[in-house]
Amino acid sequence: MMENMKINQLPSKTWNWLKMNETAVSGISVSGAHEGNLEIPEGIKKTVCPAGLPDRFKDVAGGMGSDMDMLVKESSAGAVLLSADSDVSGEPARIRFAYGAFEHSLNTFGILAKEGSNMTVIMDMAAERSVDPERTGSPSPVGENPAAVSQSEHTGLSAVQTKLILEKDAKVTLVQIIRNKNAKTVLNDIGAKVADGAKLSVIHLFLGGDRVYNGCKAELIGKKSNFTADIAYTVADDCVLDMNYVALHEGKKSVSEIRTDGVLHENARKLFRGTIDFKKGAAGAVGNEKEDVLLLDDDVVNQTIPLILCAEEDVEGNHGATIGKLDEDLVFYLESRGMALAEIYKMMAKARIDAVLRFVPDEKTKADVASYLESEGSNGCE
Q1: pLDDT digit string (tens) for 65-113?
Q2: Cβ-count burial of 140 within 10 angstroms (0-12 exposed, 13-18 middle, 19+ buried)?
Q3: Helix 341-357 to helix 363-376 angle, to the nearest 10 degrees?
Q4: Cys staple from 68: which of 9, 64, 185, 240, with CB 3.0 to 4.6 Å?
Q5: Distance in angstroms (rounded) separating the CA atoms of residues 159 and 143
Q6: Which whole-number Å values give the CA distances from 230 to 2, 155, 240, 258, 357, in the listed order?
Q7: How far apart, in Å, are the Cα atoms of 300 and each of 3, 43, 237, 306?
């Protein structure tokens, strides 16, 4: 058990009084790996690694930081390595998690895309509803961040760490869908190294989870390496979403694009950290970052830190955030046409999710998520 963990730390700290430099969680315990349902198509090799990922993955840093690596090491849960050496993007690898309400599990994955290969991996992380959904109130802060919480106050933990290595001219699309309900703490960590001409595309859909912590770091070490992240979220009902995305540019003419679109309502709390870090030698690199947030209630807490770090002169970095509420005239118009306010909120939240869902390169997954949104609504958590 990890008594105290510091996760999602900014690469360069900002003012401490903002309480956004990092997040602290305590009492994290793991009882083993979850037995997920893996559908691995022909062309992608699956290797079970009882002692953890091969040594070449040790230098791949995740967005959550070293404490997450320590949790993985202490868990001794082993790992699964997926590798491809050709274009197998036509049929994705699908990994389905169906967590028990009180399960405490951790899974580690490695993705190795060899030179010139192309693969898609889809992870769908869902959880059962807990027996007692009654909330006991907001947790007390732990450490620096007011969103921090002792995991023992919640019924379960689902943790996943994914590390990727993309060799020259390789392409990987990683889709992760998180839709855990009720008192469920989620730790999701991604780290990647992207070589010359390689391209990593990450698609994140955050549709539920009581306390969701997500870290994603891509090291663009190669010339003309590329990283895109398309993120959509809907958070409600006292839930917390804490995100940290880092695009680290080392290679010349490397490109990154981080796009985030979400909805907050019903006392939700969201913290987004987005960093574009240009290292010396990354001449000609370009990094863009944008977030669009729709606030549906006055009691939500929205925090955003767009950060650009620069040690190279010949680079281009852009960031921006748009934060707003529903136009009153639009709400009046829709209500006058017979729509209830709750229906309007659901429609707006679903539109944000659909805008990113269209990037998922798998019709089966898109249909499944669309069905889920219709049946469960777009409240983020329940």
Answers
A1: 999 999 999 998 899 999 999 999 889 999 999 888 788 999 999 999 9
A2: exposed
A3: 170
A4: 64
A5: 21
A6: 31, 30, 19, 6, 9
A7: 29, 46, 10, 20
Non-local CB neighbours of 85 within 8 Å, separated by 6+ positions: 114, 115, 117
Encoded amino acid at 60, one letter? V
Q: Residue 222's Cα: distance from chain center in Å?
A: 23
d(CA 146, CA 290): 24
How high is the mean pLDDT of the chain? 88
The span from the CA of 2 to the CA of 354, in Å, is: 37
| 175, two tokens | 């889709």
Pairing of strands 255-264, 286-295: parallel
Question: Can you give the pLDDT at residue 146?
Answer: 41
> Residue 151 above 60 pLDDT?
no
- Please answer whether residues 146 and 24 qualify as being in contact, where contact means their C-beta atoms are separated by less than 8 angstroms: no
- Among residues 236, 127, 268, 267, the alpha carbon closest in space to that of 188 is found at 127
Written as six digits, the tokens of 185 are 């703490």
Nearest Cα neighbor of 197 from 221, 219, 173, 225 is 225
pLDDT(152) > 60: no
Q: How far is CA 234 from the centre of its chain?
A: 13
